[in-house]
Amino acid sequence: MSSVMSTLSRPSRMMLLVNPQSGKGQALTLYNNHIQRMLNEAGVTHTLFITERQNHARELVKEADLSQWDALVIMSGDGLLFEVINGLLERPDWEEAIRIPLGILPGGSGNALAASVHHYSGASLVSTEELLISCGFLLCQGLVAHMDLISIQLSSGPRLFSFLSLAWGFVADVDIESEKYRHVGAARFTVGTLVRLASLRVYKGKMAYLLARRTESTPCRSASEANAGPHDSLLPPLDQPVPSDWVVVEEEEFVLMLAMYQSHLAEDLFAAPEATSDDGVIHLFYVRAGISRAALLKLFLAMEKGTHMVTNCQHLVHAKVRALRLEPLSPKGIITVDGEVVDYGPVQAEVHRGLARLITG
Ligand code: ADP
Ligand code: MG
């Protein structure tokens, strides 16, 4: 469980961002049928902002007068929250802005954070609609915990901040290929997994990480970032070797790499059972090449209940880390951050413990 640090003041004023296109395109209907009355009865004043296009939410929170709001709530999939978090950290007052409590209501096809919040509250797996009710209820309770954010450095483009996952190989491919099945809702990942299994491939790359238990690691002297957000103290420049206290993975052939910082990767993918929103840990999983299709399928089926670590799969490795680097060697491929595609190439990540605030149970 995440440790609760405060409660939203009453009556609270929420900025509620709804993506009408997320998931099966039902977010607004779900709001009208379930959420509006629930919030009103709980004395939560809220103003609806309907997003009109990609990056609209990011622009809204970048410009918003945050003193008007007690919380920002996202009703969509994880993609919209990714925009909101990055928008907050692009503000000149990012240090203050990122402390606004963030809430999530599942309205998309990928509702990993909503499923995680529901799990942290101690509740068990439920259907998508029950998940929405549960998250609405938790939102009305208004308990606020810390949430780790992971800074992501790529060789091009600005730094990104991630609250959920960094993926390469099988999982990233499934996430993106399954976008075309979004009309089936959360089942899109199951369909995508079965399709991808049929054309299972190997991804070549180099991986290295800093184990979480080594707390006394030497800060790196990286070039100071011109843009906003906290300083990355563990990461050397991406074109320089990793420090000597990092673990360099021997293998260079993989089926997948998945770094997780919440318990769920999707509603029915309980990928990191030990993870909480504020443990300061990146749960790094990778699967070595050589695994059979049957064994990989078994892993994904076990992941529904979070028992994949006890299946004794020799190809699956789990490490708790504070920082990591991936240098893909395969010429083409997909890397995702919180389910969104980023530039393919070398990438490194570092955890910033408790940087954000999450309305949780
Ligand atoms: P899902 O889980 O269904 O993918 P997301 O929250 O991840 O839901 O949303 C997917 C994408 O939709 C996000 O990248 C977001 O920027 C984009 N988006 C937001 N509002 C709109 C809109 N009105 N039309 C189209 N895309 C939008
Ligand atoms: Mg998405």
Written description of the protein model:
The chain is of the alpha+beta class and 361 residues long. The protein folds into 2 domains: 4-148, 3-Layer(aba) Sandwich (Rossmann fold); 152-353, Tumour Suppressor Smad4, CATH 2.60.200.40. It is built from 9 helices and 16 strands. Strand 6 and strand 7 form a beta hairpin. Helix 2 runs parallel beside helix 3 and helix 5 crosses helix 6 (128-141).
Which stretches are low in confidence, meaning pLDDT under 50 for 5 or more residues running? none
Structural class: alpha+beta
CA radius of gyration is 19 Å
Unique bound compounds? adenosine-5'-diphosphate, magnesium ion
Amino- and carboxy-terminal Cα gap: 9 Å
- CATH overall fold name of the largest domain: Tumour Suppressor Smad4
| Fraction of residues in helix | 25-40%
Kindly state the number of beta strands. Answer: 16
CATH first level of the largest domain: which class? Mainly Beta
- Mean pLDDT, all residues: 93
Strand content: 25-35%
CATH architecture of the largest domain: Sandwich
Domains, number: 2
Q: What is the overall silhouette? A: globular
- Determine the number of helices (DSSP H or I, runs of at least 4 residues): 9
